[in-house]
Amino acid sequence: MTDPRPVLLLGSAPSAVVCQEWSKDEFSAIVAINNAWRIRPDWDFNIFPDDFPEDRYPDAMQEGQSIVTSEAYVPANNQFGGIVYAGGTMVFSAGYWVLAALRPAAIVVVGCDMVYPKSGKTHFYGTGTADPLRQDPSLRNLEAKSARLMYHAASQGCLCFRAPEGESRLVFPLWTGALSAAAPQPDHAQAEAAQALEAEAGYVVPSGRYWDAQAQFSLPKIDAIDTHWQATYPD
Fold first, then answer.
1. How far apart are CA 189 and CA 66, in angstroms?
2. CA distance 145 to 92
3. How many CB atoms within 10 Å of residue 5?
4. How far apart (Å, rounded) are the C-alpha atoms in residues 58 and 73?
5. Which residue among 21, 123, 131, 218 is least packed, with the fewest CB closer than 10 Å?
6. CA separation (Å) from 34 to 1, 37, 153, 195, 201?
7. Does the reported pTM lie above 0.85?
8. Contact 26, 5 (CB under 8 A)
């Protein structure tokens, strides 16, 4: 039987510390992205990319805690069409891994809003590099990427929520502490159009190293796909 509690997907934005006050009993698992394992010690999975510095790995592992690397999250992303379409930033890679590996009833995303101030703290630990601001063909429309994740999650019977306050590039509804909130209704025609264009473009890189193959990508085609995904959940 599927655990009815959501998975907490935890990023490194300054607002992420709000979850320190939340009981772990509310969640079926806590998945920390990159440095977010530092926010609370009771995480279950720490997921990070291959170039994550070793000196930022968890200092120690408690019983039941696991590390998730590209060997696990790339195949998970490929199940849902590949990282090029999913969006090459860890919040989306982690989201698809959670869907494939944990099959939760819901995902609550905290501290992954991808909004970076021009001054002051960008992360809970101070300042850091803002991955979504890279010149990256997969990250041209973050709202569309989040709509895509929400649609694929819904197809698996999983709801997506985001932190209850603050600006966000995620289009998920706000988490109120319960799964009773009405899920937004998608425009299935827009989603089907996006998926048809994805299949036609064929931008799947099995290794996940899409940056080595980006010369073959057409940015107008990616933008057209994103336009349909963003329209899948109209305001």
1. 39
2. 8
3. 17
4. 19
5. 21
6. 30, 7, 22, 30, 31
7. yes
8. yes
